[in-house]
Design goal:
- 67% of the residues lie in helices and 0% in strands.
- It is an all-alpha fold.
- Helix 2 crosses helix 3.
Length: 84
């Protein structure tokens, strides 16, 4: 089995957090929630949520599940429109 080239791994590592963050913003706005409101709902501070939305940090799958739950969506829905 051949591993992915380092350039592909690097590209995915940079792009996916940004794309996930963009999806969180879309769903948050659809629910008419502020960053602060969503942050409180998921037990995180607003600055951390801001960094997630901007793709500056990569949240773990548990955090993404909690955010999806707070947004009343599934993880599948969160990732549905992410094309890499």
């Amino acid at each position: 089995m051949q591993s992915l080239p380092e350039t592909d791994i690097s590209k995915l590592s940079n792009e996916i957090p940004k794309l996930v963050g963009e999806q969180i913003v879309i769903f948050r706005k659809l629910r008419s929630l502020t960053q602060t409101e969503l942050a409180v709902m998921v037990g995180k501070d607003r600055q951390y949520l801001y960094k997630i939305e901007k793709g500056r940090v990569t949240p773990n799958i548990v955090t993404l599940s909690i955010i999806a739950s707070a947004l009343k969506i599934t993880l599948s829905e969160l990732f549905e429109n992410i094309k890499v």
